[in-house]
Each structure stands twice: as C-alpha cells, then as structure tokens.
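BUG: 3D viewer hangs when loading the predicted structure for this chain

Environment: internal workstation, default settings.
Expected: structure renders.
Actual: progress bar stalls at 90%.

Input used:
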Amino acid sequence: MIKPTIRKKRSKFKVALLSPIFIAVFIVGWSLYFIGQSGQPKSKQPQKPVIKKPEQPNEIELIVIPQEEKQILIH
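Structure tokens produced before the viewer hung:
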C-alpha cells in the first residue's frame, strides 16, 4: 500500500484565526498546572489508616406477592 505524498495545506487564514485561541488555552492550562504544583506541601505526611467498623447487615426481608388470578364470571 502506497501512501499519497500530496498533503493538504492548511489555509493561512485558519492558522492565523486559531493560533491566538490555542496560545490562550496553553497559557491558562500551564498557569493552572503551575499553581496546582506550588499549592501542594513539599513533604507528604503519611496518612493515618482509617479503621472501619464492621457493618451490621441490614435486616431486609424480600417476599413475593402472588398476583390474583383473574376469575371468570359465568352468568
């Protein structure tokens, strides 16, 4: 299988129109990433293990309610 060597060029108008949007998104994303990294403490303290109490089973009883059979009335 041979790939075509002709590539579709992007119009300069589209690139000029979309590049400020991509630059703004990149700057905002990078800023949020940098702020998130600086807000974390440098040394992480080990967390205390959480002791869970054994849960008591809920006392739920499931029953089946039979449907009433249709009665045929004969006159």
